[in-house]
Write a structure and sequence with these properties.
The protein is 32% helix and 18% strand. It has a domain at 78-254: Beta Barrel (L,D-transpeptidase catalytic domain-like), CATH 2.40.440.10. The chain has helices at residues 2-28, 55-73, 83-97, 207-213, 227-237, 250-253; strands at 106-111, 121-125, 130-135, 163-173, 176-183, 198-202, 225-226, 242-246. The protein starts with a helix and ends in a 7-residue tail after the last helix. The protein has 260 residues and is an alpha+beta fold. An eight-stranded mixed sheet has the order 3-2-1-8-4-5-6-7. It is globular and about 45 Å long. Strand 2 (121-125) and strand 3 (130-135) form a beta hairpin.
């Protein structure tokens, strides 16, 4: 039990050191006016250029560093979520924060690099350091059987779309209580709303399916979840939280402007 705690303390110390350096750099390059007073909206002309680490970039780095502590504190690697995927999710979430469209306390990650027989959906409370849900989640029936490896943004493709989504409102449809999703990446998942890609419960997302077939059932492209947790999960992530559906395919990684 001592080694994980030592690693956690070391990781926290390293991040605190990096953040301290950033703070020093940030304040070392505060722009000044021609009269030697730090610039304000009422200041005169800028005498020299602002810091290479501007205030927006500085706060973004500080926010990302602080949220990486959640990963170590919750031992997410031991639960099957890689540090790289978590960092990608934070990168996209930080960029989406600038749009003013999201709540930045809840982050959901569906890791489709893992087979559907594994719990590959994580719903994380970044503020309170909690894994709210760690669950099975389905991929589209044209994306693959046990694992997903084909992805599409096209209507009627019945395949999953990768990338970042922002959750919308709930409604009751043919699959019961469901949650609308807005794809945020043009040409990658922005057709999700027209395709009716939503979060909903499904009886084929269950251990009984895994026991009989070796994998869960598949959807028409929706990230379907077990019926017994669908309502509380949907209520937790509705109205402006980020969902990141990941797979290491180069076709996505090379095109996405949010993961980097």
């Amino acid at each position: 039990m001592q080694k994980p705690r030592k690693k956690l303390r070391l990781a926290t110390l390293v991040r605190a050191t990096v953040l301290g350096v950033l703070i020093v750099l940030h304040w070392s390059f505060v722009p000044f006016t021609t009269d030697g007073i730090a610039s304000t909206p009422l200041s005169k002309k800028i005498f020299f250029a602002p810091s290479p680490i501007g205030s927006i970039e500085y706060h973004a780095i500080a926010w990302s560093l602080s949220k990486m502590e959640v990963y170590d504190s919750l031992h997410l690697e031991e639960q099957g979520l890689s540090r790289t995927v978590f960092q990608m999710a934070l990168n996209g979430m930080e960029k989406l924060k600038k749009t003013g469209l999201i709540r930045d306390n809840i982050l959901s990650i569906a890791d489709f690099s893992r087979p559907s027989s594994e719990k590959r959906l994580f719903v994380i409370d970044l503020n309170n350091y909690q894994v709210l849900f760690h669950s099975l989640v389905a991929h589209g029936n044209r994306s693959g059987k046990e694992s997903a490896n084909v992805f599409s943004n096209k209507p009627r493709s019945n395949a999953s779309s990768l990338g970042f989504y922002v959750t919308g409102q709930t409604y009751r449809g043919s699959n019961g209580y469901s949650l609308k999703l807005q794809g945020m990446e043009k040409g990658i998942n922005d057709a999700a709303f027209r395709r009716a890609i939503v979060v909903h419960g499904a009886d084929y997302v269950s251990d009984s399916w895994i026991n009989s077939k070796g994998y869960i059932g598949r959807s028409q492209g929706c990230p379907a979840v077990p019926t017994d947790i669908s309502r509380p999960l949907i209520d937790e992530i509705k109205d402006g939280t980020v969902l990141f559906i990941y797979h290491p395919t180069s076709a996505y990684i090379s095109r996405s402007k949010l993961v980097r």
